[in-house]
Amino acid sequence: MLEHAKKTLRITPMRERVSPAEWQARIDCAACYRLVAHYGMADMMANHISVRVPGEDNAFLINPYGMMYEEMTASSLIKVDIDGTILDKPDYGDFDFGINRAGYVIHSAIHRAKHELDCVIHTHTWPGMAVSSLECGLLPMTQTAMRFTRISYHEYQGVVLDLAEQDALVANLGDNNAMILRNHGLLTVGRTVGEAFNALHRLELSCRAQIAAMSCNTPLHPVPQPVLDATYQNYQPNVRRPYGLMEWPGLLRMLDRLDPTYAE
């Protein structure tokens, strides 16, 4: 029989133990966890968001395995190096949280290889899992989805526990900022937390729209290839401001109104 005794989650403050730059990275990372939960993209304590520690190229922040997205805070995040060694973490009271093996394998692969990227997000939403299981993959059937016309794909090889899979993960991602993990879920990356979250939010909307349209059991209206190509180009970094730049401050203000404890 499971023990149902309630345990207390007490997290020691980390602000005085880290640099100002790391503290800001912790705030942004915790905010991203809260936002993923707010928009219905969390899978209880599963999945991960990681953020590179400023000034420490081989270290990143990731969630303690066992905490819910909605209760994540800046102090609760675990600092780990590329090789999986825990560098710093708070006292969690009645708990002794560590990191999840699969999360470490996926996220460390990208942080090790892609030094220009600061944030990696991976989700198991039902629309993402559904599209990841379709032979056709993501269709460029809406303006939002056309941003991902050339999205990356990674074939399913089982639960990602083997370091040998890391090279394939990085190679399949290539220079894209989004990848569908076949029969698994979604993954996005960004030079900032805001950029990675923007990609995830739009990719999730694309998957939801596709599943909704395909569920109507009627032919989809096609878009001519030249229009698809032109729309895709309009979404590329060389023709527009960085994604996330405008909305991230607004998203933080929204979190401040809802529950400002993410920044503790």
State the helicity in percent bands.
Answer: 25-40%
Using the coordinates shown, work out and report the CATH topology.
Answer: L-fuculose-1-phosphate Aldolase
Q: Taking Cα atoms only, what radius of gyration do you get, to the nearest Å?
A: 19 Å
The H/E string reads: HEEEEHEHHEHEEHHH
Low-confidence stretches: none
Strand order of the largest sheet: 4-3-2-1-5-8-7-6
Summed up, the helix count is 8
Structure report:
- It is a single chain.
- 36% of the residues lie in helices and 14% in strands.
- It is an alpha+beta fold and 264 residues long.
- The model has no long low-confidence stretch (mean pLDDT 94).
Keywords for this structure?
8 helices, 264 residues, L-fuculose-1-phosphate Aldolase, eight-stranded mixed beta sheet, 8 strands, alpha+beta
In short:
Pfam families: Aldolase_II (PF00596). With 264 residues, the protein is α+β, with helices and mostly antiparallel strands.
Write the layout of secondary structure elements.
Blueprint: H1 20-38, E1 48-53, E2 56-62, E3 78-81, E4 86-88, H2 101-113, E5 119-123, H3 126-132, H4 143-146, E6 152-154, H5 166-173, E7 178-181, E8 185-190, H6 193-214, H7 225-234, H8 247-258
Helix pairs in contact: 2-5, 3-6
Family: Belongs to the aldolase class II family.
Organism: Muricoccus nepalensis
GO molecular function, one term: actin filament binding
